[in-house]
Amino acid sequence: MLIGELARRTGTGERLLRHYERAGLLRPERRPNGYRSYDDTAPGTVLRIRALLAAGLPTRVIRQVLPCTGADAGVRPCPGVLDALRAQLRALDRRSAEIAAARDVLRRTITTAEAATAGAATAGSDDTVAGSAKAVTTAAETPAASAGPVTPPPPR
Known about the structure:
mainly alpha, 2 strands, 7 helices, two-stranded antiparallel ribbon, single chain, Multidrug-efflux Transporter Regulator, Chain: A, Domain 2
């Protein structure tokens, strides 16, 4: 089948299919006219690639895992595959912790800003500065803010 047919069957764009080929995930044959020709297993392969990408695996890991997958998308034991999957899981756990820390910082920032806004709205025009300072102090004393400083995640 040609690339357009594979794209239609899988709901995947032709550019993305070409990317999978460049990444070594798909290996179509070439016709004499240079067109890509995919066999009948290609739609299942593309769907497994998409599932592995959705699981957060980068293409370099998928290239290693893909030969160990069956039509049911289950992974058979292959040398190095479990190590690669465990390493990816550790990386996802680290990213998850970084996101949780960033969420905490954002929640505290919102709480502080809301308290400052509420204090400014209730304070008179002469007391705006004093009211804002009091609202910020009050927000800093809330349980979420008293949990201590959160270090932002390191840059990637």
